[in-house]
Amino acid sequence: MEEIGGTYDIGLQSLSGAMERGHDMVYVCYDNGAYMNTGIQRSSATPHFADTTTSPAGTKVPGKMQPRKDLTEIMAGHHIPYVAQTIATANFKDLYEKAEKAIYTKGAAFLNVMAPCPRGWGYPTEDLMKINKLAVDTCYWPLYEVENGKYKVNYKPAKKLPIEEFLKPQRRFKHLFKPGNEWMIEEFQKELDERWEMLLKLEEITNKE
CA-CA distances (angstroms) from residue 21 to 25, 101, 108, 128? Predict the structure, then answer.
């Protein structure tokens, strides 16, 4: 199991090599969205416009200026037997089933597990389950898997919530709700909608007879 630094950025080269070679292994990324244990610095896993110690939101720059790297899709692009995206505490059934499937898959398998950080994200610890639920209900963090090239979306919200529901409880996004910054929320939503629609399209295409 690796955190952000050893996966999204510093260790991506060795991870990619291991996946491409098809080693019989399960790689688990503990995705907390930044370099949390070294001072909350931005990483390529950090979402667009987030305020971190190395991408501070101010008058000149509104937080991190780049969208979040989609590591799950990068791993799917290696054409390994099993890739999945899940969440640490919001849906234990989803986490358990995907972990079991990854363990018993012959060859390389990858799990990307979102794990919200109260200090780095800026929310009360007791709101952990709320943050997790909002992540999946806004489709910020879709629950899906790619098994032998076939996509399956494991959870489709009956009513997809707007992204501000996920952003508002987090201190790292408080500047997005200041007057004049509405464009950031709109851009975030547009980016998210495009990724969600693409995921649904991949599910449809890869499961055609």
Answer: 11, 20, 8, 37
Distances (CA, A) of 77 to 81, 141, 145: 11, 19, 13
Question: Reduced to 3 states, what is the DSSP secondary structure of residue 179?
Answer: coil
- d(CA 55, CA 134) in angstroms, rounded, equals 24
State how far the Cα of 34 lies from the Cα of 69, in Å rounded to an integer: 12
Residues 6+ apart with CB under 8 A from 170: 121, 122, 123, 131
pTM of the shown model: 0.94
| pLDDT 10s digits, 12-53 | 999 999 999 999 999 999 999 999 989 999 999 999 999 999
In which residue are the tokens 């004049």 written? 180
Taking the C-alpha atoms of residue 198 and residue 201, their distance in angstroms, rounded to an integer, is: 5
The secondary structure of 95-118 as a DSSP string is HHHHHHHHHTSSSEEEEEEE---H
Contact by Cβ (8 Å): 155, 135: no
Kindly tell me the sign of the dihedral angle through the C-alpha atoms of 102, 32, 14, 1: negative
* 58-67 pLDDT, tens digit each: 988 999 999 9
Task: Give 60's contacts (C-beta < 8 A, 6+ positions apart).
Answer: none
What span, in angstroms and rounded, lies between the C-alpha atoms of 192 and 92? 24
